[in-house]
């Protein structure tokens, strides 16, 4: 295993547009995520089922379409143009909501469609950024680069809800979404300055006889199936990738189940005040930013393998502090949980993303990230919906404990020593004896609220 570098990249210029655009785009995504359900509930009288459907479809559509997005990212000639076009389309989709509102034709089914489209387009940005990163920085600088992206995500997760809340309060949900359109346009401008991420121009194929439209469609479908099989085949070639994806899915299932009940539990069971709950969110964000600032040194000290094996189970284990808070010192235990989870989950995200980018050939990275995202993202709505049902049967403390144990058991799959060896082509490959699994944690911390 090559040692993780503890020094920043000597030339950050190729990375700056990626980090800045990630910050702008994620801030806008969180504004939309808050404004859409607010609009549905306050203007269109949506009930709990409809509100949950908007949430579930945004994640579900993103997860289900991720494999196709991965194929697109791996085969597109210019990732820069893809990112720019995707942001422009996202701006158009989001702008259609206030337009429909002003025309007085806005409906709940339309909001559901917008949520699904927004989820898919957000997935394109997420997968593209992670797949293009190894083309911009050397392999031994990936930890620092991923830490920079994690910092942008953390800042966006702080700024997005705050900006969204202010805009919704001041302008109303519909006009807040109109303002949010600007964030996607700004992100497109920043992405347009991205350089050095293009793919090699493929050799021009030899001229062939013209084929019918149906034959061309069959050929395209066969090519798509082959491309998807190649992406899945990478998980067999590098079993460690599967273990990482399983750990991520387990943490997201457990975290989403806890997250769906977090606020209800804090208010009704622990009798915390809104001010205290808001302060706890700030503790988590501060811990995440501290992790971003120290991730390069921490991973350099422990190495990628030990960092993943250590920080994943510790992050999951901290979830047990949530149900434990019903027994004694609730505020103190919640603060300790937020500190541990915010820090450990962020370091794990940086380390696992860097390891995945080193293990996977660049021409397959988009598909591998996409399949990992499918598993991890679909775990979020599943965990949230199951958590709500389970709480009615077992009560809040029992349900919270069960989901925390699910997360801990899943992340235990990466506690064994991670070993890599050199393959026939000189590139790294997973140890076949390492066992089954997983992808990197999503940019959204699923155990959050």
What is the compact description of this entry?
The protein is an all-alpha fold and 449 residues long. It has helices at residues 16-42, 48-75, 79-102, 108-136, 142-171, 173-191, 213-237, 239-269, 274-302, 304-317, 321-324, 330-359, 365-394, 396-411; strands spanning 420-422, 428-430. It has a two-stranded antiparallel ribbon with strand order 1-2.
Task: Give the SSE layout.
Layout: H1 16-42, H2 48-75, H3 79-102, H4 108-136, H5 142-171, H6 173-191, H7 213-237, H8 239-269, H9 274-302, H10 304-317, H11 321-324, H12 330-359, H13 365-394, H14 396-411, E1 420-422, E2 428-430
Antiparallel strand pairs: 1-2
Helix pairs in contact: 1-2, 1-4, 1-5, 1-6, 2-4, 2-13, 3-4, 3-6, 4-13, 5-6, 5-9, 5-12, 7-8, 7-13, 8-13, 8-14, 9-10, 9-12, 10-12, 10-14, 13-14
Report on this model:
By secondary structure, the protein is mainly α. It contains 14 helices and 2 strands. A two-stranded antiparallel ribbon has the order 1-2. A hairpin with a 5-residue loop joins strand 1 and strand 2. The longest helix has 31 residues. The protein is globular, with a radius of gyration of 22 Å. The relative contact order is 0.16.
């Amino acid at each position: 295993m090559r040692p993780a570098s503890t020094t920043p990249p000597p030339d950050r210029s190729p990375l700056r547009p990626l980090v800045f655009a990630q910050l702008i785009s994620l801030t806008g995504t969180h504004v939309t995520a808050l404004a859409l359900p607010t609009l549905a509930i306050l203007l269109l009288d949506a009930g709990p089922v409809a509100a949950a459907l908007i949430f579930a479809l945004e994640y579900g559509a993103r997860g289900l379409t991720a494999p196709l997005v991965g194929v697109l990212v791996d085969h597109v000639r210019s990732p820069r143009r893809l990112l720019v076009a995707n942001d422009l389309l996202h701006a158009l989709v989001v702008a259609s909501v206030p337009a429909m509102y002003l025309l007085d034709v806005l409906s709940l089914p339309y909001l559901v469609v917008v949520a699904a489209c927004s989820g898919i387009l957000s997935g394109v940005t997420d997968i593209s950024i992670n797949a293009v990163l190894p083309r911009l920085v050397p392999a031994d600088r990936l930890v620092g680069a991923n830490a920079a992206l994690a910092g942008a995500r953390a800042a966006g997760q702080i700024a997005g809800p705050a900006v969204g809340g202010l805009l919704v309060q001041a302008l109303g949900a519909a006009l807040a979404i109109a303002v949010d359109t600007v964030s996607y346009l700004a992100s497109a401008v920043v992405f347009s300055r991205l350089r050095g991420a293009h793919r090699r121009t493929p050799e021009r194929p030899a001229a062939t006889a013209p084929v019918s439209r149906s034959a061309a469609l069959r050929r395209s479908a066969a090519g798509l199936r082959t491309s998807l099989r190649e992406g899945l085949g990478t998980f067999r070639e590098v079993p460690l990738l599967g273990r990482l994806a399983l750990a991520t899915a387990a943490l997201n299932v457990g975290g989403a189940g806890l997250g769906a009940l977090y606020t209800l539990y804090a208010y009704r069971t622990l009798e915390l005040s809104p001010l205290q709950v808001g302060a706890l969110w700030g503790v988590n964000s501060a811990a995440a930013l501290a992790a971003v600032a120290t991730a390069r040194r921490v991973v350099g000290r422990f190495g990628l393998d030990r960092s993943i094996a250590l920080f994943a189970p510790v992050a999951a284990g901290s979830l047990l502090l949530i149900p434990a808070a019903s027994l004694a010192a609730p505020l103190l235990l919640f603060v300790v949980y937020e500190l541990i989870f915010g820090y450990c989950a962020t370091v794990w995200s940086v380390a696992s993303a860097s390891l995945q980018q080193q293990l996977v050939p660049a021409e397959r990275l988009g598909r591998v990230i996409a399949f990992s995202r499918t598993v991890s993202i679909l775990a979020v709505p599943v965990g949230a919906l199951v958590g709500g049902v389970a709480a009615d049967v077992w009560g809040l403390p029992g349900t919270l404990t069960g989901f925390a144990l699910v997360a801990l058991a899943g992340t235990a799959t990466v506690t064994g020593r991670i070993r890599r060896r050199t393959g026939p082509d000189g590139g790294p490959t997973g140890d076949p004896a390492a066992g089954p699994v997983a992808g990197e944690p999503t940019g959204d911390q699923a155990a959050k609220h």
